[in-house]
UniProtKB/TrEMBL annotation, chains A, B:
This protein's UniProt keywords: DNA-binding, Metal-binding, Repressor, Transcription, Transcription regulation, Zinc
Annotated Zn(2+) binding sites: C116, C119, C156, C159
PANTHER family from the UniProt entry: ZINC UPTAKE REGULATION PROTEIN
Official protein name in the record: Fur family transcriptional regulator, zinc uptake regulator
Naturally occurring in which organism (per UniProt): Citreimonas salinaria
Length: 165, 165
DNA sequence: GATGTAATGTTATATAATCACACTTGGAGT
DNA sequence: ACTCCAAGTGTGATTATATAACATTACATC
């Protein structure tokens, strides 16, 4: 879980600098709208996730915060991450016990993730909440879905092409 | 993660005693076939999972093993779980950091899970490997899927009916 | 019976997450 | 201005989950 420079969402290159600013601005607007407080710690954690543009472990983030004097104990980062994930600004990747900034932020969406096991980059894909066989299976079983986890591990285009494994 | 008596797969009642025996027999046959060793520890861990018939944490299982003198340190249970999951006899539920016996065991299947957040029971549903939007998203992105995680959290029929939350 | 491989035993440690409680701050009501 | 409350933060300790590293055993094969 080392921090490295990165390419983009969907494994495609894009204008990274502006995407950070845009996302932050969107988050700020959304918070103002919903009377949520994007406090310094919360804002900085989101920013760190946006800059990394890949999944980061809570303790990796904490290390950065510590360097910057913004907090030094685990609860600091976990509280910020709780806030960010609860409000859709970031997502938890269960498979990695890690977190990633939300790409796109449409309210109430059900994201799916493609995780490259080599370069560790993560792409986010939008998916209808109860779509697909998971939803059908739930209906069949009389199960009420509240949240879904859809994560695929494998090889991203770049890593699949180069020496894979 | 306390062990409790339970009902069944798919949240439906079924003959539990025989389902344990059947699954164990199937596992034994499969191991014999594939020249895999279903050693005492491995067999017992599978049995524990089958009896619980719900997701169990590794340390819950370890506690049982310890009581029975079958092993007392974490690596014991993790190695057994690695074996069982690698060979399709059990599955890891990422969302819960827990494990569950496989219901059905068809080779090379891609299971999905319905997890009740109240009673903690888990139902397993069979799903085509790259089916659905996750597969389509991967194709679009040029991503090679090796493994998928599909887990839905919510309310099982019984808990949805009674006082939910 | 020497050798190789798979499995197990055991100690220590790494990694992830939460609890519990004190403190600060900024607004609402008076 | 004062009190109160709620949200957020600081901090130390603890719990939960998982792996590393290395010694030992068990068994098959030659």
């Amino acid at each position: 879980m080392t921090a490295q420079p990165s390419l983009g969402a969907g494994f495609a290159r894009h204008d990274h600098g502006s995407c950070i600013e845009d996302s932050l601005a969107t988050a700020e607007a959304a918070c103002a709208q919903a009377r949520l407080q994007l406090t310094p710690v919360r804002r900085r954690v989101l920013e760190i996730l946006l800059e990394a543009h890949r999944a980061m472990g809570a303790y990796d983030i904490l290390e950065r915060l510590r360097d910057e004097g913004l907090g030094s104990q685990p609860p600091v980062v976990y509280r910020a991450l709780d806030f960010l994930t609860a409000n859709g600004f970031a997502h938890r990747i269960e498979r990695l016990n890690a977190f990633i900034a939300c790409a796109g932020h449409k309210a109430g969406h059900a994201p799916a993730f493609l995780i490259c096991r080599v370069c560790n980059r993560v792409a986010e894909a939008e998916i209808a909440p109860d779509a697909g066989e998971l939803g059908r299976a739930a209906t069949r079983a009389g199960f009420v879905i509240e949240r879904t986890v859809r994560e695929a591990t494998g090889l991203c285009p770049a890593c699949a092409e180069g020496g894979e494994a």
